[in-house]
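During the reporting period the student researcher (J.K.) took over the structure-prediction task from the postdoctoral fellow and processed the backlog of single-chain submissions. One of the processed entries is reproduced below for the supervisory committee.
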Amino acid sequence: MTSFLYCLNASTIRPTPLMDKIRIAGEVGYSAIELWHDEIEAFVASGRPLGDIKKALADAGLALPTTIYLRGWCDTTGAEHAAGLEECKRRLQQAAELGAVHSIASPAGGKVDVALAARNYRELVELGLSFGVKPAMEYLGFVEQINTIESALEIMTLSGHPQATIIVDPFHNFRGGGSFSSLSKLRGDQIAISHFNDTPASPPRLEQHDHSRVLPGEGHLNLKEWIGLLKQIGYHSWLSLELFNEALWGQDPREVAARGLETMRAVAEA
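J.K. obtained the following structure tokens:
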């Protein structure tokens, strides 16, 4: 019996229309889906209400652990920061209306004043909680500074907020030069969601990007170690299949989603 719940990140079958993604995720056996705000906003811009998405989630029996993503908050000040927060507020309101638990707070791409980022993250968490949604700190392996668990955890710790959380991801750990053992620096309740993916040994690490990801077990990462460490720190929640693989985007989305669920289970339940 598995210790985890299985989620589909909508990026994995990205060319598929939003409502079809939700239907497919439910039909092939996922318990949840992560949705991207660009797709949510395009859906609303087409003249359809957010309520249609919420109903589709309910009809498919899917939870919504996160929405993706919040931007413009991390290293901004003054008028730029105020504008960024207004954008975050709009997205947090959408997330709340859809019933999301967390919204992913993505980092800045360059060098960051960590003390400023920590203050801004605390402010963002408070803003999210006013809507009933928890902004979760993300690290990205291909950005300059906030590219490891340690760099995200530093901001979370300095923020001093008791509800600070993090998104963890095997690909980003590899790409950022981090170690899977860094998971042991977290408590299970600090993890909002674990993205789940694999990546090939070639091209070299620093040449890899989002599109390099492959299905679990089809790359070189020691995902059994990842799973073991998650269990060790008491995390027993969502594993979310997150890929941006263009070869998979060209295939039947139902088959990709089903195969992805099978590969996650093969690793997590071994």
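The committee noted the following: DSSP finds ten helices and eight strands in the chain.
J.K. will present the remaining backlog at the next meeting.
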